[in-house]
């Protein structure tokens, strides 16, 4: 299981993150405090405080997704 911390500063960043996550064939979870969400759910991600640090846990590898994670690394 891989784990990264990210910050999505705005709606466009959230859209880019969800799009990259949706292209992956493995599960990706986003954790904020006690909330756990599917990273492929735009409404779920937008319901979070986007200025806060989010923990992303995933079990596969995808070059495009890794690029987006690096772009928004906290």
Strand content: 25-35%
- What's the alpha carbon Rg, rounded to whole Å? 11 Å
Compute the number of structural domains: 1
**Span between N and C termini?**
19 Å
In CATH terms, what is the architecture? 2-Layer Sandwich
Would you give the CATH topology?
Answer: Histidine-containing Protein, Chain: A
Please give the oligomerization state of what you see: single chain
What general outline do the C-alpha atoms trace? globular
Largest sheet: 4 strands, antiparallel
Largest sheet strand order: 1-4-2-3
CATH class: Alpha Beta
Find the structural class using helix and strand composition: alpha+beta
Helix content: 25-40%
Organism: Coprococcus intestinihominis
InterPro entries: HPr-like, HPr-like_sf
Domain HPr: 13-52
Protein name: HPr family phosphocarrier protein
Summarize this structure as a short list of keywords or feature phrases.
74 residues, alpha+beta, Histidine-containing Protein, Chain: A, 4-stranded antiparallel β-sheet, globular
Short description:
This is HPr family phosphocarrier protein. The protein is of the alpha+beta class.
What does this structure look like?
This protein is an alpha+beta fold and 74 residues long. The protein has one domain: Histidine-containing Protein, Chain: A (2-Layer Sandwich). Helix content is 35%, strand content 26%. It has three helices and four strands. Strands 1-4-2-3 form a four-stranded antiparallel β-sheet, with no helix packed on it. Strand 2 and strand 3 form a beta hairpin. Helix 1 runs antiparallel to helix 3. The two termini are 19 Å apart.
């Amino acid at each position: 299981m891989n784990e990264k911390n990210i910050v999505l500063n705005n709606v466009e960043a959230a859209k880019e993150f969800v799009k990259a996550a949706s292209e992956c064939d493995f599960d990706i979870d986003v954790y904020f405090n006690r909330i756990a969400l599917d990273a492929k759910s735009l409404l779920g991600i937008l319901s979070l405080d986007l200025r806060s640090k989010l923990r992303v846990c995933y079990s596969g590898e995808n070059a495009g997704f890794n690029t987006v994670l690096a772009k928004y690394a906290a």
